[in-house]
Structures are given as structure tokens and as C-alpha cells.
């Protein structure tokens, strides 16, 4: 069980605090501040690794090594950026990293319409309402997010990136779901030999929410698409991040069933719950099954039964107990409560399975 850590200078929650969370063995991190497409150097990654290990924790995987837009759009310069990606994988592989999470969403990363929706108990959560999205100009999306976050920079919503929003939409003009899928396969085929050599498991993160927005295609949203992707590059290093909250944004997705179908190809798990309010309208909740719409016990059990062995982490939590010095969704308190609960489920599921043997 791990937690995401945004790195020195980016995460107000320190490694000293994380290491006191019971059952936490490692962190999931990345080189924040590196631009997508840049090759990471051995020295900068070694410094990050040293810092994590000095706290008694380890780096359990990288989230994310972001994909340059020219790779997603299949632009002529994509091969240069794939070479950079391979160089980064070599640095990571040499340093002992065995799991890399990434996503292949065009223009926008994960999308929410509020980062601080108040719940009845006074906690706040991230939420999404399709009615709001349908009424806004996509170019205004960044100002909505940034007006709520102030100076905090959310991964995927970097101001440098959003300053180029018109240009980004232009780049993706004419890119439909089929072309985007082909570009993903081209990328995966190019990096697989490097991944195989280092035993690095690539884990694509599902699109969030799990349907196309602003007329942009999304290709990692359901069981069929995940299986098609797994088969198109049929290598154990081509796998998936099972993000329960992203996939379950569409209530038609049966998460335990998707886990069973992807057995052996899930390399990373994001565990969180959400509450469906109406079609296209959901809010995040506490991790506890009874607080949301998902059966978290069934999800943890399905992961165990599928033979999943990779890192897992509690995904976004609520903001509670007056905690404000954190990135939205990434406070310490509710993620620690979530982690303790998820570890309880995992222990119960494991002992029940052993008792049956
Ligand atoms: Mn996730």
C-alpha cells in the first residue's frame, strides 16, 4: 500500500508524516517540474530517490511519466519524443523502478467542475457535473480550475500548458478515437523492448470522467477498450492502472468484473469511492463503501482474486478536519483514513481466502 507524494517543493505533506501512516511501505512520485517530452537525467532521479529513501520509505512506482502531445497526435516529431521517453525509462529501470503510470487523454487530464464541493458533514470533495461542462467554453476550463486552486499547481493543469490551450485544440483537430488508439499502439510498440529489458510495467490510467468531453476522443473508458488495448500489444509490460473512481464515473462499468477480465494486466491500483447523484453528475466520497456508490470490499477482493501484486494507493480523499495546506483531493487526513480502511479490507480478504484453502 502506497500514497502519492508530489515531491520536494510541490507537496506540503512531508515524507516524515507519510511514514507514520500504518501499513504504508512506499510512495508513488514523479519529477514534478519536468515538462512532458523531456528526458529525465540519472542525477535528478537519483536525488529524488535518495530523499525518499532517507525517510525510510521507497519509491514504489512513478506516476506519471507524461506523454508529449506530438506522440498522442502522431505528429512528425513524435519519434524524437519517444526516444526521450525511452531514455527516461532507461534511467528509471537502472534505478530499480518497475511500474510507470501514464495517461493518453487529449488536451485535458482528469476533469472536475468543482474541487471543493461541500458535503453535509462540512467536508469538501471534488465533483463533476456534465451540465456545467456542456455550458462552458473549453478554453475557460482552466480558469475554473485555477480560480479554485489559487497558486497550487495541479498535475495535468499546469499554467504553461493551459496558456497554449488554443494551440492544443488545434493540434488535436482531426484526431478521432481510432487515430488516437493507433498512436497509442505505435508508442507502446516502440517502448516495449525497453520495458521488457528492465521489467518495467506500463500502467495506463483510465480517462476521467470515462467518456469523451468537449468533443475530444477518449479511448480508455471501459472494459472493451481496455481489453482491446491489452490485446493490441499483447505483452505483460503493457498493462493498466485500475482506477476505481475514474472507471466508475460511468455507472455502466462493473469494476470487479473489469478487474477479473484484465487479470494479469493490472499493474497499479487507485482505490477510491464516489457517489452518483444523477446521470453525469457525481461527487467523490470517503473510501468507505457505505459512503459512496461502490462496493470497495468487492473491488479489493477482485484484485486479490485476480492475482494483482502491484502497488495500490488510496486515491483522492475528502478535505476534512480543517486541513487546507494540501492539493485538492490530496490531504493527509482522509487519505490516511482511506488507507487504513483499505488495508483492513485487504487483510480480511486475504485471511478469508487462506481459510478457504
Ligand atoms: Mn486515479
Question: What does the secondary structure layout of this molecule look like, with pairings?
Answer:
Blueprint: E1 2-4, H1 15-18, E2 26-29, H2 42-54, E3 58-63, H3 69-73, H4 78-94, E4 99-102, E5 114-118, E6 124-129, H5 130-135, H6 141-149, H7 159-162, H8 165-171, H9 177-198, E7 201-204, H10 223-232, E8 238-243, H11 244-247, H12 255-261, E9 266-271, E10 274-278, E11 281-284, H13 296-305, E12 312-314, H14 332-356
Helix pairs in contact: 4-9, 12-13, 13-14
Bound molecules: manganese (II) ion (MN).
Manganese (II) ion binds next to loops.
The CATH superfamily is Divalent-metal-dependent TIM barrel enzymes
CATH architecture: Alpha-Beta Barrel
Taking the alpha carbons of the first and last residues, their distance comes to 25 Å
The counted number of beta strands is 12
Summarize the amount of helix as a percent range. 40-55%
Approximately what portion of the residues adopt beta-strand conformation? Answer: 15-25%
- The name of the CATH topology is TIM Barrel
Output the number of helix runs: 14
* Biggest sheet architecture: 8 strands, parallel
* Overall outline: globular
Radius of gyration: 19 Å
Structural class per helix/strand content?
alpha/beta
Q: Give a list of the ligands.
A: manganese (II) ion
Tally of separate domains: 1
* CATH class designation: Alpha Beta
Low-confidence segments? none
What do you see in this structure?
This protein is of the alpha/beta class and 357 residues long. The chain has a single domain, classed as TIM Barrel (Alpha-Beta Barrel), CATH 3.20.20. The protein is 40% helix and 16% strand. It is built from 14 helices and 12 strands. The strands form 2 sheets. An 8-stranded parallel beta sheet has the order 1-2-3-4-7-8-9-12. A 4-stranded antiparallel beta sheet has the order 5-6-11-10. A hairpin with a 5-residue loop joins strand 5 and strand 6. The longest helix is centred in the last third of the chain and has 25 residues. The model has no long low-confidence stretch (mean pLDDT 93).
Amino acid at each position: 500500500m502506497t500514497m502519492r507524494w508530489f515531491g520536494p517543493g510541490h507537496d506540503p505533506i512531508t515524507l516524515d508524516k507519510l511514514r507514520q501512516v500504518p501499513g504504508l511501505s512506499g510512495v508513488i512520485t514523479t519529477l514534478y517540474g519536468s515538462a512532458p517530452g523531456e528526458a529525465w537525467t540519472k542525477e535528478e532521479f537519483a536525488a529524488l530517490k535518495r530523499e525518499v529513501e532517507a525517510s525510510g520509505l521507497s519509491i514504489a512506482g512513478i506516476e506519471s511519466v507524461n506523454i508529449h502531445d506530438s506522440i498522442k497526435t502522431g505528429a512528425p516529431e513524435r519519434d524524437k519524443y519517444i526516444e526521450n521517453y525511452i531514455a527516461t525509462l532507461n534511467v528509471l529501470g537502472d534505478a530499480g523502478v518497475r511500474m510507470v503510470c501514464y495517461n493518453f487523454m487529449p488536451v485535458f487530464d482528469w476533469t472536475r467542475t468543482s474541487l471543493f464541493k461541500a458535503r453535509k458533514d462540512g467536508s469538501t470533495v471534488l465533483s463533476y457535473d456534465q451540465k456545467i461542462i456542456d455550458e462552458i467554453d473549453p478554453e475557460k476550463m482552466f480558469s475554473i480550475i485555477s480560480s479554485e486552486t489559487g497558486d497550487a499547481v495541479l498535475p495535468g493543469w499546469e499554467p504553461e500548458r493551459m496558456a497554449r490551450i488554443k494551440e492544443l485544440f488545434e493540434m488535436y483537430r482531426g484526431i478521432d478515437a481510432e487515430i488516437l488508439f493507433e498512436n497509442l499502439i505505435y508508442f507502446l510498440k516502440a517502448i516495449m523492448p525497453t520495458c521488457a529489458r528492465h521489467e518495467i510495467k506500463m500502467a495506463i490510467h483510465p480517462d476521467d470522467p470515462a467518456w469523451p468531453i468537449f468533443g475530444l476522443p477518449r479511448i480508455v473508458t471501459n472494459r472493451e477498450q481496455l481489453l482491446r488495448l491489452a490485446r493490441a500489444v499483447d505483452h505483460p509490460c503493457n498493462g493498466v492502472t485500475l482506477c476505481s473512481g475514474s472507471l466508475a464515473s460511468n455507472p455502466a462499468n462493473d469494476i470487479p468484473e473489469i478487474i477479473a477480465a484484465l487479470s494479469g494486466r493490472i499493474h497499479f491500483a487507485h482505490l477510491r469511492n464516489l457517489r452518483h447523484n444523477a446521470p453525469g453528475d457525481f461527487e467523490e466520497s470517503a473510501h468507505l463503501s457505505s459512503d459512496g456508490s461502490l462496493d470497495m470490499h468487492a473491488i479489493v477482493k477482485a484484485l486479490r482474486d485476480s492475482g494483482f501484486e502491484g502497488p495500490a494507493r488510496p486515491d483522492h480523499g475528502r478535505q476534512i478536519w480543517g486541513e487546507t495546506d494540501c492539493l485538492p483531493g490530496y490531504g493527509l487526513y482522509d487519505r490516511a483514513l482511506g488507507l487504513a480502511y483499505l488495508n483492513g479490507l485487504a487483510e480480511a480478504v486475504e485471511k478469508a481466502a487462506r481459510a478457504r484453502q
